[in-house]
Design a protein that fits this description.
20% strand, alpha+beta, Endonuclease, Chain A, 4 strands, 4 helices
Amino acid sequence: MTILYNQSVQREKRRTLRNQIPQAEKLLWEQIRNKQIKGIKFRRQFGVGKYVVDFYSPQLKLGIEIDGNSHFNKSSKYNDIRRQRYLNSLGIKLIRFTNLVIYHNSEIVIQKLSTIYHRGLHYFKD
């Protein structure tokens, strides 16, 4: 059986990403760590297959990606779509926020995560 989560071949990559966390991710992490939202456990830089998700809740099977400027070019958008399709095929929903939303409206992010918890994952519109 293949290990799907946090594969050892990605250990250094995940560690590097955790140690070089961008400011927007750091701000969100401070608000969601230690089960601060409805007791939901989030992990950061969590490996799923060949991908690393910025934040992941095993309880909700929910990944959170924080998109900086590098995500707004054509090839990155294609890669993001491919990643999302892969995660969705595993039953993992992915929600994306931009750095700007985190910097200027983090309360909206927290509210959306709380709403997902209350309404369940059917809250997502596919």
